[in-house]
Write a structure and sequence with these properties.
Layout lengths: L5 E6 L6 H20 L6 H20 L10 H13 L5 E8 L3 E8 L5 H20 L11 E4 L3 H17 L8 E2 L18 E3 L2 E5 L10 H12 L2 H6 L3 E6 L4 H14 L2 E6 L8 H9 L22 E6 L2 E5 L12 E7 L25 E5 L4 E11 L4 E10 L1
Amino acid sequence: MEGAIYGVTFRLGDSLPRKVLEAWLFEREDIIKTAKQMGRPLSEDEEKRLRHLHSEKVEQYLDAGHGACWMKQDRIAGIVAGALGYFDGERYDLLAWCVMPNHVHVVVKPRPGHELPDILHSWKSFTAKEANKILKRTGEFWQGESYDHLIRDEADFGHCIEYVLGNPENAGLKGWKWVGGMGILPMNRGRDGHATIHGYKGAIPVWVGEPKQSKGVTAADVQAFANAMRKTLRYRQDNLRDGIMLAWAFRPDAMEAAERLRRLEHTDLNFIRLDMIRIDSPRFREHVTALSTHNADYENFLTFVQPPKVEVGHKRIGARTYKFDVSETVVMNAGARIINVQWDFDYGKRFSSTPGFSFVRGSKKEVALGAQYEFPTGGKKRIACKVQDDMGGEGLWSGEVEVT
């Protein structure tokens, strides 16, 4: 289903006692079979029953640490975490995840053209092979059955995010590092048009303002966000009342509304005003320097690498034969020098050096700033040149030449 968000759990092959697994599968299949016989998808009630069943029959055993718990080893957990994030932002959006000692939780939104079963297969297949190599073992690594749940609304989304990010601590794993994700994603809006909770930073609800810089946050926005916070599990169970609002500007009535909530309900909304500045500006440098501590002097690491400004000249010297020159290229990084020039005389969507025209050196092993090339055919040709300096700067130029 395009645009769908899923909560997913998959686990090691020995993470559940056989009797527990069989009991869960039997009851699960009974619920699914009933819906199939009636020729309809699962109802919301049936979805809730499945979630409760999974929580009651499965989660308590998983968190108890049954089985070999291979992901207690950092090397194995690192392989799994790396696989989860590898195609994040390309094939799917990874909103929250945690790698537990014997199972994995993920909140994920597949991108168009990519299906959840394929994503799961990719994660499980790759990590099983790599983990088995390290463990010097063969055979089943993951259980074949995975649990996935279609997230239906904001409350469901918030509950899933909270559960995943809080699972290590709730299972008694203090300081567990294999957990992450912002969980920030627009969900459905209410009838009044106001978004309620857009996502979570850790377990803290986050609200994100309009993209227009002229649009300030209003008292109605603050109240809608506070109302949504009251419905969250962390508010109802733990009485945690803090939230974050990100926006370009906050109107005075919004500030007053937040102050009333703080005074009357002890609800603390942290307003963060966004601003756009260049990362190479003095203002940004001052901000980063202010974050420095006795143990971490960030200013010394604040170096901005600029790409060379590539300038290419060309001259026809014969039939379909041209000389190209980049000697007018300007290196933007102070003290840097050009270390490589590459040419692509058939440039398409991606740069690919023409054979013989990368890492070219002159008679004294200096970088060749010029190149001579005979095109196989005439006509309009698109060419590109890539210039690299010894401070990591890389610039690309492309243009068209009418070859005769």
